[in-house]
Amino acid sequence: MGKLLRVNTKEKKFNFEEVPGVYAGLGGRALTSKMILDEVPATCHPLGKANKLIFAPGILAGSPAADSGRLSAGAKSPLTGGIKESNAGGLVSQKLAKLGITAIVLEDKPVDNDYSIIVVNNDGVQILPAGDLVGKGNYAVMESMWKKYGKNVGVLSIGQAGEQCLKGASINQADMNGRPGRAHGRGGLGAVMGAKKIKAIVVDDKGAPRVAIKDPDAFKAANKKWVDMLHTHPVTGQGLPALGTAVLVNVINEAGTFPTKNFRSGRFEHAQDISGEKMAELIQARGGITTEACHPGCVIKCSNVYHDKEGKYLTSGFEYETIWAFGGHTTIKELDDIAMLDRLCDDFGLDTIEMGVTIGIAMEGGLIPWGDGKAAIGLLSKVGDYAPEGKIIGNGALFTGDALGVDRVPVCKKQAFPAYDPRSCKGVGVTYATTPMGADHTAGYGVTANILGVGGTVDPHKKEGNVALSQGLQIATAAIDAAGLCLFVAFAVLDNEDGLPTIVEMLNAQHGLSLTPNDVLELGKSILNNEKEFNKKAGFTKVDDQLPEMFNEKFPPIIHNGIFPLKNCQKPLTFDNNL
Amino acid sequence: MGKLLRVNTKEKKFNFEEVPGVYAGLGGRALTSKMILDEVPATCHPLGKANKLIFAPGILAGSPAADSGRLSAGAKSPLTGGIKESNAGGLVSQKLAKLGITAIVLEDKPVDNDYSIIVVNNDGVQILPAGDLVGKGNYAVMESMWKKYGKNVGVLSIGQAGEQCLKGASINQADMNGRPGRAHGRGGLGAVMGAKKIKAIVVDDKGAPRVAIKDPDAFKAANKKWVDMLHTHPVTGQGLPALGTAVLVNVINEAGTFPTKNFRSGRFEHAQDISGEKMAELIQARGGITTEACHPGCVIKCSNVYHDKEGKYLTSGFEYETIWAFGGHTTIKELDDIAMLDRLCDDFGLDTIEMGVTIGIAMEGGLIPWGDGKAAIGLLSKVGDYAPEGKIIGNGALFTGDALGVDRVPVCKKQAFPAYDPRSCKGVGVTYATTPMGADHTAGYGVTANILGVGGTVDPHKKEGNVALSQGLQIATAAIDAAGLCLFVAFAVLDNEDGLPTIVEMLNAQHGLSLTPNDVLELGKSILNNEKEFNKKAGFTKVDDQLPEMFNEKFPPIIHNGIFPLKNCQKPLTFDNNL
Question: What predicted TM-score, i.e. pTM, was given to this entire model?
């Protein structure tokens, strides 16, 4: 059993606490959501002293289980006003597990602008003045931290957006090259870290023992099955490693659910220019990396390194959602501009989905022209300048819509929509509306059965089956997030009867438990119930579980040819095009 | 029975409609709130086509009843997201009544930026292109309208703030000198008018008959009693006519409930510099007007005209709430600077309470220094420049707090607090929290019994009695707003057993009814119930009926001497200073 590391950010003090019984056995999202429900007053100001920012490795963290290195960050969200969990890859989760730290809990807030950094290692904890890191972007912060504390330390940091407490602010993690390509992006958690004046957290596991495994043989056997499962599934074994998540551009566009020009249609005429295929071609020609893991032990390796025209590093972790948000949504068709926007988000510490949607809203409001990548770069740069425009843009899509008098803003619970139209991919549309997280595809990725034929098939255009699809996925996802597993393992799990039992075997072998698959699903349900309870206390009602008014607009019917190259569907989907 | 004038702002068409039975007999706030409940989807976007903007004269409008010329404006509020009624004096209400128009209802919205003006007179209705009025402030618009359509026409217009659809935008009314000194200030209704691209509404009653009175003798007798009552009460007969509402500065400061430096204390050391006494002295020395009616037939005459140091017109309708918001709240102590801020608000079309509180939040966030009047003028001017800072400031206190990462923002239901601290004037504090309108002193002015000894006495520092005080006042106020009476008549009504019966006598005599005082209070209750029903449908819960977290801060105890110069209390108040 590990310990909770509680840091009082006002007093610059910390203490280690035995994990109390009420949190025993929890990890990842299960722990962050339970702690927020129990310890954070639901009606508090998200930037006030009563909010807490919690980082928790998953239950499998630090073990050799493939793809188990995701770290959950949780707080009351400055963006949604509700509970938030946002997880990311990087180096921190496994190192915390090795250090025996079940969670870092940031509490209270300083009165003055005295930023700190927190350094956690096998010798203990230091809370140090942030010095000249203040005002710097994540690239500079991470470079500095690796220089000072050693290559390969885990780093969580905020850029200029978090310092300004903007609702679009992310917390970034150093990736395996020490760059801020991984992000706890959604929900503005970087603003909570900024309010608590913590510029960075460094986690170094040098000298720490391995994580104990109660039954090593059973674990090894289960993990072997697990790795095979991930390797042999066409999505996790072929599609994602080959092209990264950007493989989805052509697929989703072909399926007519690639939201274009602020959700006016589901097809972008220039999708090919920003596709995964195009990206892979450019990366290969320019000397980047098409296939990279976001954390040690990942076997899917959907990340990448993208170089500019001169062959110099430009950005990394350049994902489908980012390409859609800055691309199809805004009609920007130059992939290099989109890559620069991704880099700026990583550097300033901004959620790329929120910012891409926001840039589209700025275009809708006439602030910059549709499709103008250079203007978008100029506008987003204002966040780094601490300029008034940046304080609008950096606060996200709804805020920018309000600033500009735009009434077509695709948000649920104030959070911007991801890259699937809820009218032509209703499984994910139900998730946008009903997840306690605010519009979030990762909370219940109905694209699986709606479009990819993974885990069965459910017609994306009809209501039938999509509520059940979303609900089932939301429960499973919550459990996956608690385990600290990458969400993409779901592709394999959904198509393998042996998927969930294998995860359970690893959990049992690591911790000496005798859980059943049903126990794990019950855990998923309890997480969702905790989150919904918090939101109810915060004032959420069923009104907050609705899509915004703009989705009453008639959606242009899409004729598509039924190609879903990620996987050969055994039972080809047939769609009703009469929407 | 009058008619509803419905204007389709998209098609530029109108029609007159017999008042349907469900709205029969209603006027003012009773009508606007019922129509919004019945006709506006509660979850619609306030700037979308489904919202409606309704202007309704009160039930007594157009009659000779003293102080019955207030016009109600209603819509779903862009600021609060809930139902909103905001009433103002000016010339429109009585003219609409004479034209037989029970309400003007603006519906739908144009797709393009094609602004219109609406001209209503005895010959009918014209919807005309706004031409070069677009981009102009309210001073220029009203001057132009009086020049074109004749001195003394009623004008409703929006300035640059309404055009930008900012949440702080007001709808201004030409006062009796054709200046925009009167405002439907609260709740951002100017943004709804801006979304519907209506720059101005001109109402001319030339040639229209008088409003019919069913029993002229009974009406005359009742109105005589009514006028006497207003003339003989110390507040409506002496305090308000002598110094305007600014008479309250010293009173409320003395009572320790004049919120200072963003609600850090209840006393402003420079209150004397911005007091009603000081203002009257300056007005008299510079050739302004200390006592003026906001609409024909007003016998209280609390308005004024304020000149600058050179003796030139600077602003009018310069009120206590404005002086507090830009003064005590921000610690600006130069009355001339505050007067300039008032003028800018009138010209751009901004709510002075919301803007004053917002300027204080900008100071809290470090954007400009505390107490710097010139910096405040510079910042507020950005709204007129359509600049990014203006799009932040013009969207109000909460928005500005969010832009700047400020967690101490005094709002309820997202609307900024008026000029009384809810901790040391709990009667109005209960109103801030519980009125469906968002923090609004006029919805239930507990200052009466809390501070002024009007309508009895209730200790402002204790919980006891203040919920009942606020509830009773909220009901009575809703009825007063339905009648179209100025809220200030409440001072006299609360201290006269014959007050409410006299109002009822006038209503009965005008319309040939046989209402009882109880019927009128039931009307007040039904208005509140309609409003609460709308808000519930819009997603409001009891969480929205709470004061923000900052009011958990300990409030410095205030020692005061119990002087309340507006009225000699028969039973002097005693206060418990142990807060």
Answer: 0.95
